Amino acid sequence: MESNYVVNIKNLNQYFGKKTLRSQILFDINLTINSGEITIMTGPSGSGKTTLLTLIGGLRSVQEGSLKFLNRELRGATNEQLVRVRRHIGYIFQAHNLLDFLTARQNVQMSLELHKDISKWEAHRQAEAMLHAVKLENKVNYYPSDLSGGQKQRVAIARALVSHPKLVLADEPTAALDSKSGRDVVSLMQQLAKEQNCAILIVTHDNRILDVADRIICMEDGRLNKEVA
Ligand SMILES: Nc1ncnc2c1ncn2[C@@H]1O[C@H](COP(=O)(O)OP(=O)(O)OP(=O)(O)O)[C@@H](O)[C@H]1O
User: Residue 6's closest CA among 54, 70, 87, 57?
Assistant: First the structure.
């Protein structure tokens, strides 16, 4: 169903290096990601997962083929266009990347303030509501150094989802967490994704979370294999 897609990739090839050192990293990638869907991407280290994730996230330029985000072609996009695309995407990384000198609420609020049409008061209110949704209502004014690993990752989820992005990209979101916190974090992502009807792409080696996926895809040697399950 083309009309429902958030990401549509066709015959994408990507290379690193120049001239004689140029080597191909991604080979003929074809992938569609629809709203409301959780896709998990697995695959061995060095197979190209992060490279694909950063291309989809508008964090690097597409070299060959087509990558459409909400009907906009990212190949050949200017930096300014890529910045605009990034406003529709939430990012969650292994090392939560929270700013240590900001409280949980300020970290979440900062992501909303990129959207100029929202007042400070409204951003404050929405940031608090989102922290409530990730069950951190009693940690709103805590600094990251006073939160556990799982709590920090929940702040990162709140920050990624507060602006109601169309797509959330998560690179190893549970890698630093124990089994229970890892589960809580992905269940929360799943619940919020369904509520907001956004698409989620998770790169993970963590077999314990595979069951939250609507589909699982596997990258091997720069090629995307057909669905695993
Ligand atoms: N900036 C770069 N310059 C040159 N080669 C790179 C660069 N970034 C990644 N590569 C190479 O591209 C290939 C794919 O790397 P990538 O980080 O996408 O793999 P990955 O599947 O995400 O691995 P991991 O699971 O270990 O994070 C690897 O062979 C890597 O060495």
Answer: 70
CA 190 to ligand 1 centroid distance, Å: 27
71-118: pLDDT as tens digits: 899 999 999 999 889 889 998 877 667 899 999 999 999 888 877 688
Residues 126 and 160 both lie in one domain:
yes
Residue 149 burial class via C-beta count within 10 angstroms: exposed 0-12, middle 13-18, buried 19 and up: middle
Terminal Cα-to-Cα distance of the chain (whole angstroms) = 20
Q: How far is 13 from 19, CA to CA, in rounded Å?
A: 16
Ligand 1: centre distance to CA 140 (Å) = 36
Pick from 164, 179, 194: which residue ends a domain?
Answer: 164
Q: CB of 124 within 8 A of CB of 147?
A: no
